[in-house]
Design a protein that fits this description.
Length: 455
């Protein structure tokens, strides 16, 4: 069973240290969240599952970690300065601002939904650019500034030649990046679903023009399967083709992977065919290549972003297929899927896939501060920790019932209890989160048991 509503998830996330409102003790800031001790592990695990599947398990993808601060020139030629905006309206009565295309879901700051608001006295919609700017250097006179990147993708495109030259890649191949992106959303909402600072997991996959549609289909399939492997049920995912009128300026076709979030069916990941728009826009000598996309003339680029065809020796600008997923939306989806209430057992648990669980195993000495038990627990923890499969922790509180409840709620797959039998006959009790079954395992077998479980 998934969470019935967002409130249950928000409450568990705060209570158990997954997600906190940012700047909380000063009243918080809208659209910003911090990841707590459990949240940071879950996020790291989701990102490493993505990196493993996109980079390590393939032989055609390289990684990149580029800067967040981005030159205005990059975002000029990418089209973001001109087009990265949402329609904004002001209420003439209370001066609040809303997204013109989301009025029916908006709240009036004076209370109640906007559609019931008496004033209905709104300005005409006008474009509001979503990029954050910051001054660069010691003089803040507006002459030298950078943007906080609104997507990680652009730095992949501007590093294209660096990566190609240093790795000798030819299409089809990809460049993957995970990192922060920033958008000054007019109305951040729905917990971590729409926020102003978030992380993206993006792959830019470069292909020969003409093979782009086949590769687009390939990536749709791959990405749907990946979400299923993270525990997101296939029946809760829907592939939606973005209507032509709603396509981003760079896209020939985009499919959104939609997920049934607690607040409704919404985009989890977008998979776009960006054509040769981006490399073409950032390239010098654009006229030398048969660029299909509608681009503006580039007078600043120092580099041609083309590749020589090994067969006919002609230079061409590759097309790009881009699967782009939000980490926060991924975290929300896997938490929602994992959230389970078992009335019969009077417990709430997170049935997270073990590779995503923040804590892989809790090692629990039955009696608090009993040095014999605690020493064994510490040794077991060290041995399991050294396997490098994720965080293992010792719970030295002496309350086994409370420990089981806490670890059910944060999704720990295994609890390993060190009790007085351990001292007598060298066995421990291993409890499985989902079945609650308890098994006696010899101390010398614990490492083996644990490794097999996570294999
Ligand atoms: N490079 C392509 C790109 O940025 P996008 O559809 O605007 O495309 C990709 O964003 C993904 O980033 C979305 O599918 C979503 O998961 C995530 N995302 C976008 N805006 C977000 C926001 N304000 N808060 C949280 N996640 C967001």
């Amino acid at each position: 069973m998934t969470a019935d509503n967002m409130e249950d998830l928000v409450s568990l996330c705060k209570r158990r240290g997954f997600i906190f409102p940012s700047n909380d003790i000063y009243g918080g800031m809208k659209g910003l969240y911090d990841f707590g001790p459990m949240g940071v592990e879950l996020k790291l695990n989701l990102k490493s599952a993505w990196w493993k599947s996109m980079v390590y398990e393939r032989d055609d993808v390289e990684g990149l970690d580029s800067t967040i601060l981005t030159s205005p020139t990059v975002l000029k030629y990418s089209g973001h300065e001109d087009t990265f905006s949402d329609p904004l309206v002001d209420c003439k009565v209370c001066k609040a601002r809303f997204r013109a295309d989301q009025l029916e879901n908006s709240e009036c700051p004076r209370g109640g939904s906007l559609t019931n608001c008496k004033s209905k006295d709104l300005t005409e919609a006008r474009p509001f650019n979503l990029m954050f700017k910051t001054a660069i250097g010691p003089v803040d006179d507006g002459s030298s500034f950078a943007y906080l990147r609104p997507e990680t993708a652009q730095q992949i495109f501007v590093n294209f030649k660096n990566v190609v030259d240093s790795t000798s890649r030819v299409p089809p191949f990809g460049i993957a990046q995970i990192g922060k992106a920033f958008r000054n959303e007019i109305t951040p909402r729905n917990f971590i679903f729409r926020v102003r600072e978030f992380e993206q997991m993006e792959l830019e996959y470069f292909v020969k023009p003409g093979s782009d549609e086949d590769w687009h289909k390939y990536w749709l399939d791959k990405r749907l399967n990946w979400w299923a492997e993270q525990g997101v049920k296939s029946e809760k995912l829907k592939l939606l083709e973005v209507e032509k009128k709603d396509l981003s300026h760079y896209s020939k076709a985009t499919f959104d992977i939609m997920y049934d979030f607690p607040h409704g069916l919404e985009e989890l990941e977008g998979i776009a065919n960006r054509t040769d728009f981006d490399l073409g826009s950032h390239s010098k000598n654009q006229k030398d290549f048969n660029i299909k996309a509608n681009i503006q003339e580039n007078k600043n680029s120092t580099t041609k972003l083309a590749i020589q065809d090994l067969e006919n020796k002609e230079w061409f600008i590759p097309f790009v297929i881009e699967p782009s997923a939000g980490v926060e939306r991924g975290v929300l989806a896997v938490l929602n899927e994992a959230y389970t209430i078992e009335e019969a057992n009077k417990r709430t648990l997170l049935k997270l896939k073990p590779h995503l669980s923040p804590i892989k195993a809790a090692v629990i000495p039955l009696k608090r501060n009993n040095s014999d038990l605690v020493n064994i627990a510490n040794n077991v923890k060290s041995e399991l920790q050294s396997l490098g499969l994720g965080r293992v922790m010792v719970e030295n509180t002496g309350n086994i019932g409370k420990n089981y409840r806490r670890h059910d709620e944060i999704g720990t797959p295994l609890c390993i209890t060190i009790d007085f039998e351990t001292l007598e006959n060298q066995t421990v009790t291993i409890r499985d989160r989902d079945t609650m079954k308890q098994e006696k395992v010899s101390l010398s077998e614990v490492v083996n048991y644990y490794s097999k479980y996570f294999k």
